[in-house]
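Field reference: sequence -> structure
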Amino acid sequence: MSALRTTYIGHATLLIRIGGKTILTDPNFEETLGRFLPRVSKPGVALADLPPLDALLLTHAHADHLSFKSLDLIQSDIPLFAPPVIARWLQRRGYSHSEPIAPGESLRMDGITLHAEAAVHRGNRYGLDRWRHASNMYLVESRDASFFFAGDTALTEDTTNLVDKQLRDEGRRLDVALLPIGHAPWWKPGFRKGHLSSGDALTLFDRLGARYLIPYHWGTFEHVTSTAFDAIRQLRAALPAHPNSESVRILEPGETFELPDEA
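Structure field:
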């Protein structure tokens, strides 16, 4: 069995098996985003068909990453890890299984270690709740494999720090970089201050030195400023000129990538 299996469900929701644990990221199985932006592809795995889960990773409070409807349909005894301010807010709303993990913190579960770092992204849910803007990125490692899940973030000089500290400085290589891709319209110059464009994701992939890149944030919801497929079209157009294009794995919803053994 592969040391790491990743299934793309849609948007930022991925099902990952590592170190004997099954993890679900930013669960969103809703048919619309913000009640009016339609979902254009069904979840790659139906919520009712999910295997037993060991942990949920929540990066921030934006509606495309934090779906209350989806959380309400997932067992409430599964640890839900989130930035502390988000975890406390969720606890007040009745999600008692929400557990805080702050940037710079690590915790061990049987077979894996979870590390958190701050993302460069304002993740507040509503316009006036800037106190709730915290966003996390996560690195999960087992004895045999590792993955980095960026949530939403801008590309900065510090974006690789978590992987550098926990893996590269210890002589290990990141196996899979799970990175969001977005479409940055020319008339929206602020987009890249909190998001990765397709080009930024390729640059971050190179800087991380990962074995494989799996892009997400595409093919799921229509957006106000772009279609669900603009970003992936841009990524595909850029790949022929990228020196490591054979290591980019574009998963359709429901497709699974199994980490090969290193040669």
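Note: The mean pLDDT is 93.
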